């Protein structure tokens, strides 16, 4: 019987609705046409969700010290170790490190257990690395962590300022909503993109400001002063509803155009154009993300932006407002339950005695709640390293790859006497150091709620039964709580009971005093919860949903004690590390279109590996020339903390002096590409968020003795090479390789990759040229191919991958290039329709195409999910440019 189930995408904070069709074992996904985040559309990651549901690599049974065990033994051990540590060293000797990828219900019970029952605030989350500067900025300005606007504002605005956000790749459906509005509204909203590098998002921009890394505060101080000079103050709003303006303005006055130009490195005419655009458009939304948050001045960057919106009264109205877009699917839900070490449940404050009493009473906690904030992520791992944390439970995050100073974090786990990890996959760089592994339910199995960037709560629903012995995260936490002696407070039988409790707490003694209120759902039953449609908060009890405002602060009522918004004086501070002779480059890190974080889930999808199959360092051509780095050569980046070895990608899109490296590759997929190892553990003093976008590094060209490319059916268990990167390909794996010392015997090496015993090897050798190729076959089936050369191997990758997936002759594959009448499609730009870069370039040239629509008509590219349209735009632009020189 075919069943249709509505659920929510588990990737970015856009929170798109997904309609799954379940037919026995077969599950397919499509966009939920009725979901107000995406109205039926999905980006490439969302539409490949059915490809990441395989059980290969899943953690399906509890494990203790590497050995499979049963739940009772694992849970007893966790409870006992935590109890022992608390008894011997006090509650602050234990900690939880959790994640914005937990459901609200999981997060709620984790926080309740630590703050309410263990009696410590040592619970922090990977949101510290992600949203905490926004949380801090919101709280300073609004008195609450409130995202005021909604997605419609992006369509209704006349101007969108996208700063520190690669929306085209990181929130593709929001980007598409903007792109579509521009088509329908004759180019409105205009878009300004502020980013030190040119990205796919820049393709849509009317103006791209390639500012110096970390200089946003100066730029927005200059904007505040420009608004003042243009008399754009909303005087009534400012007078009635804000305080602290004069000090903020006094600071802004120091920022003349010349000074801003000098600090940001931007040409004065571009600055003037930017300021004039903002002055001219009252309907202005400023969207910001990690280029703002992940900074040692992150909270100040946020407040510098908020100041400009408060000044012009551009908040709480249709088509305007500051908009912090959240990264993880439940970043917002985690904030709602108070998952950060300095927050309390239901948007209450840990440093507020009345709030502590309220929550403590509500939970019936055995002792007063801790009044001292817990350790924030970076400090928490320092405490594990120096022995203060003796038992640590990590849930749904991979800190050995994502925290700054990642090698130190790995050492911290090695030193910590007791580490527990709850995960959905078995092998991760973090799990390798856990004493206990607990198998959690994954997307498509778990059951609960998430909140997206516009405060909309949607259900994730199970599509199939739990595989193996995996359990819901909330249940695992409650199982441990019960064994620690707190059975009654954690006796939930269904996630709806947790959600109802959370909703009741949000309404307790609230009456409009706090922003977060979903008490309309305080009495929700399991059946109602099953049917729950997406809704936006606030949703207080006793009021009709339609009477609720869609936006906060239209009424000018903020959540500070005097209910006024605060202007915050922000002074410009450069990133903590300044490039010097030893470390002359600023290292910028971020995301790619088709991968999700540490690739534990997306890394296994063939479709998602076709876009970019290997880690790289993108650097400016002038820097590359100076370093002697050649296209497709290797480059080593390093500093006192660590080192990575990456493929060089040379591109005008980088500023001189900046290098960009994607965050995704781990020891599971590459030899040496964990870029977080190079990030200094420097944090914003207000938010505690690390500066993940501005480390300083040395760069060096590396001249390998050999390069190689291989195709294998099985994933090799071990690869003996200085450089390698593995990716899925139809029919097996593709591997990029390079070595520093000459290969003693290429044939032996190739066989070690293929992992097959006896097979027929068709080989080509040119010992003088240092080249070798072979194709392995058995009983007519090709099992592997290997191409070695002293320079980057000229194999037509996309063509070879296709030939490897189809029945083909060893000799044809050995050539490494398509036959004369065929063409290598090139790296896949459109993975939905399977269109490569060469196919698009040929079409542009041969058919004289001049628009993305024409290219779509001719090749199909861009007609699937649409995530690739900005890249097609860029190919078109480059081709046009090439034609004029
Ligand atoms: N495909 C994909 N999408 C994702 C994710 C993923 O892993 N893959 N992860 C999700 C998560 S958790 C998050 S937090 C979001 C992140 O979404 P984004 O914040 O959009 O993504 P990033 O690539 O981390 O960084 C954004 C941009 O900040 C720029 N930047 C660096 N330094 C500065 C600076 O000083 N000033 C300014 N103005 N810009 C700067 C970088 O060049 C980069 O282009 O993405 C979410 N969506
Ligand atoms: N240098 C640098 N570092 C960064 C960033 C950057 O831009 N640059 N970005 C930072 C940001 S914004 C973020 S959000 C983090 C992300 O960093 P992480 O949170 O470390 O990355 P993920 O790969 O998402 O890790 C999630 C883990 O949880 C597992 N998992 C997935 N679903 C579930 C589930 O339902 N239950 C359980 N128990 N486990 C599950 C996955 O298999 C995976 O191991 O990285 C941060 N680190
Ligand atoms: S935009 Fe984000 S939430 Fe929507 S389908 Fe893509 S990854 Fe999923
Ligand atoms: Mo994030």
From TrEMBL:
Its cofactor is [4Fe-4S] cluster; Mo-bis(molybdopterin guanine dinucleotide). InterPro entries: Asp_de-COase-like_dom_sf, BFD-like_2Fe2S-bd_dom, BFD-like_2Fe2S-bd_dom_sf, CT_Nitrate-R-NapA-like, MoPterin_dinucl-bd_dom, Mopterin_OxRdtase, Mopterin_OxRdtase_4Fe-4S_dom, MopterinOxRdtase_cofactor_BS. Belongs to the prokaryotic molybdopterin-containing oxidoreductase family. NasA/NapA/NarB subfamily. Keywords: 4Fe-4S, Iron, Iron-sulfur, Metal-binding, Molybdenum, Nitrate assimilation, Oxidoreductase. This is Assimilatory nitrate reductase catalytic subunit. One of its GO terms (molecular function) is 4 iron, 4 sulfur cluster binding. Pfam families: Fer2_BFD, Molybdop_Fe4S4, Molybdopterin, Molydop_binding. GO terms for biological process: cellular respiration; nitrate assimilation. Gene3D superfamilies: 2.40.40.20, 3.40.50.740, ADC-like domains, BFD-like [2Fe-2S]-binding domain, Dimethylsulfoxide Reductase, domain 2. The keyword Translocase does not apply. Residues 2-57 form the 4Fe-4S Mo/W bis-MGD-type domain. One of its GO terms (cellular component) is membrane. The keyword Metal-binding applies.
